[in-house]
Amino acid sequence: MKISKQDRREAKQLFRSCVANGVLDENRVRQAVSAVLAQKPRGYFAILSQFQKLVKLDLDRRAAKVESATALTPEMQASVKNNLTSKYGQGLNITFAQNPALLGGLRIQVGSDVYDGSVRARLQSLEESL
User: Fold this and answer.
1) What is the pLDDT of residues 46-55, one digit of tens each?
2) What are the residue ranges in the chain where pLDDT is below 50?
3) Cα–Cα dist 75/17, whole Å
4) Strands of 19-102, DSSP E
5) Is 68 helix (H, G, I), strand (E, B) or coil?
6) pLDDT recorded at residue 1
7) What is the structure's pLDDT at 90?
8) What are phi and psi of 115, to 5 degrees?
9) Which residues contact 84 (CB under 8 A, 6 or more apart)?
10) What long-range pairs does 45-50 form, CB within 8 A, spacing at least 24?
11) How far is 4 from 88, CA to CA, in rounded Å?
12) Count of C-beta atoms within a 10 Å radius of residue 67
C-alpha cells in the first residue's frame, strides 16, 4: 500500500507525541491509537500502519541481547547494563542468554549494532585470514 507524504508526516508527529524523556511511552501509544481510531481522519489506516512501523523500529532499536558462553554473575550483568545504558541511554530492554557455542567472551546486539568479542568470532576471523 502506498502512503502519502501527509500521512507519513502525521504518523511521525503522532510518534513524536508518544515519546517522553527520549523513551517511547506505552500508555501514550495506546491513547494515540485510540484517539485516531475514534476520530477516523482521512487516511487513518495508512497513518496507523506507518505509526506501527515507527513504533516497531523504536522497539527494535531499544532491544539489547547479551549472549555469553556461561551464565554471567550479577555483578557482570550490572556492569554490562551500566555500560550499555551509558552508551545508548535509558529505556533499553536488556536480555541475557547463554550460548555455549561462543566458547568464551560476549556477543552483544543492540538494534542493528553487533559487538562480538567471543572466542568463536576470533577463531572464524583467524580462519578467514588463512
Assistant:
1) 999 999 999 9
2) none
3) 37
4) 19-20, 23-24, 63-68, 93-98
5) strand
6) 64
7) 82
8) -115, 110
9) 64, 92, 94, 108, 110
10) 46/1, 46/3, 46/4, 46/7, 46/11, 47/7, 47/10, 47/11, 47/14, 48/11, 49/1, 49/3, 50/3, 50/7, 50/8, 50/11, 50/12
11) 32
12) 20
Q: How far apart are CA 4 and CA 27, in angstroms?
A: 27
Q: Which three cell numbers stand for residue 111?
A: 538494534
Tell the residue number behind the cell numbers 523500529, with chain if given.
Answer: 57
Contact indicator for 41, 47 with CB cutoff of 8 Å: yes
Q: Which of 126, 119, 115, 122 is nearest to 104 (CA)?
A: 119
pLDDT of residue 24: 84
Q: Could you give the maximum distance between any two Cα atoms of the chain, in Å?
A: 63
Query: For residues 105 and 77, is the Cβ–Cβ distance under 8 A?
Result: no
> Cell for 72?
554471567
